[in-house]
Q: What sequence folds into this?
């Protein structure tokens, strides 16, 4: 396990293993992303670009941390996560992600995901999610109820990311990984109560494989809220397996942070 | 890197639904629901005769072997006459289900054979039949839907009941199977309307 220096440890954590995880990252204009974020959560900006990643994965053995994996439930989940920053009043920036949209193919998990405190900022919808692989070829198909999260992507696994050049806009694979992948906090904002929420994760090391995107359709980046001109794919990576731990959510006072 | 149109994406969704095996749709469209109901009645019939023979004091193993051989031999023709094969490739899940229940029938047959080899009455370890069913349903739960764990637990209870009430063990076993199979068949049959109504259901419109 890596990361997490937080002293906060609540009794109930959730564990799972991400299996066959795809991270498909799109670049968007910062002002377009800012329009989708709460006012106290800011887009990460680099060379005039911000980033949103579609994370598709098989969540294997999701369960309370005290239980063994075989008692957990397995399902597919797809998350649209924006790379963001919290800005403290002293100017210090705290990296993280913000979940713009989340779908699963398990109605039970969607039900509890919508109700549990830790996940209440996720927007769960139940969709048909399928991931096929044959040799180095991958096909992802996500059909969502409202069609807004529909996704089809044909990809090819090119092997370890370190053996390939970084995605355009990044100086190295480590730079790309540090910017898009190594993010351990998910934020949400409750404007009515003036609170920010911070969900911290711990996870195993991600051994990235570079993917080549052959054909793709992502309703989120083709129809709404983005289109082919305002959102474009920049990085595609694959992780075969990675353990995850969701620590209980922390509450932060919004007044300690800068809001737009 | 080629962006594709929504219309092409929709075609992929239809194909994936077909390949992925909408098991619920196949259960309805291929009339598995009806096969289960018929088999539920069949097993109750066979177990009732078995229990009646035991109550009469029948001890000849060949009588029971013949009865259950007929029961097992009738399963393929029942499936053959009722089943309506849907189009498309058989999915991995379907293959697992065939494997689970073929294995169950073989193992159940060996229960009687081992009793005979050990010189015991042919149904001395009859509660093991319920244990095998519990095991089969627990595997079903892993490859299809967790709900089958309920049936697994039910057959564990049946195993205990068969051990305690040995004089009525085949009635308990047969009634349990009948309730499980008929309820499953009726439940999936009830989903038929929803399956037909699904505008984009890959299996909608199949022969029923």
A:
């Amino acid at each position: 396990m890596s990361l997490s220096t937080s002293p906060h440890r609540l009794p109930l954590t959730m564990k799972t293993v991400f299996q066959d995880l795809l991270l498909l990252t799109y670049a968007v204009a910062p002002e377009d992303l800012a329009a989708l974020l709460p006012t106290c959560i800011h887009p990460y900006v680099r060379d005039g670009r911000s980033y949103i990643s579609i994370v598709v994965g098989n969540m294997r053995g999701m369960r309370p941390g005290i239980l063994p994996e075989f008692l957990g439930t397995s399902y597919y989940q797809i998350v649209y996560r924006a790379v963001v920053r919290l800005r403290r009043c002293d100017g210090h920036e705290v990296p993280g992600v913000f979940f713009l949209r989340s779908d699963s193919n398990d109605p039970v998990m969607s039900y509890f995901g919508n109700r549990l405190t830790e996940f209440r900022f996720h927007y769960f919808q139940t969709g048909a999610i399928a991931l096929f692989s044959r040799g180095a070829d991958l096909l992802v198909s996500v059909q969502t109820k409202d069609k807004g999260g529909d996704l089809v992507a044909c990809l090819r696994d090119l092997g370890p990311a370190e053996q390939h050049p970084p995605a355009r806009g990044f100086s190295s694979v480590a730079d790309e990984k540090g910017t898009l992948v190594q993010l351990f906090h998910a934020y949400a904002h409750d404007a009515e109560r003036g609170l920010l929420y911070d969900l911290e994760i711990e996870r195993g090391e991600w051994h990235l494989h570079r993917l080549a995107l052959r054909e793709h359709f992502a309703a989120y980046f083709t129809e709404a809220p983005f289109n082919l001109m305002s959102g474009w794919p920049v990085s595609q990576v694959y992780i075969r397996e990675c353990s995850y731990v969701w620590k209980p959510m922390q509450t932060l006072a919004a007044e300690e942070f800068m809001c737009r | 890197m080629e962006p594709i149109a929504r219309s092409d994406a929709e075609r992929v969704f239809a194909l994936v639904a077909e390949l992925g095996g909408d098991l619920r749709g196949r259960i309805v469209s291929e009339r598995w629901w009806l096969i289960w109901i018929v088999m539920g009645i069949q097993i109750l019939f066979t177990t009732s005769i078995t229990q009646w023979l035991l109550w009469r004091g029948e001890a000849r193993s060949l009588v029971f072997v013949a009865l259950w051989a007929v029961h097992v031999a009738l399963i393929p023709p029942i499936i053959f006459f009722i089943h309506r094969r849907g189009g498309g490739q058989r999915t991995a899940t379907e293959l697992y289900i065939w494997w689970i229940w073929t294995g169950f029938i073989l193992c159940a047959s060996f229960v009687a054979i081992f009793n005979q080899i050990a010189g015991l009455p042919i149904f001395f370890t009859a509660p093991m039949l319920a244990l095998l069913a519990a095991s089969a349903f627990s595997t079903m739960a892993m490859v299809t839907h967790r709900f089958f764990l309920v049936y697994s637990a039910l057959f564990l209870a049946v195993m205990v009941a068969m051990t305690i009430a040995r004089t009525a063990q085949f009635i308990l076993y047969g009634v349990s199977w009948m309730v499980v199979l008929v309820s499953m068949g009726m439940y999936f049959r009830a989903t038929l309307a929803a399956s037909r109504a699904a505008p984009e259901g890959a299996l909608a419109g199949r022969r029923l």
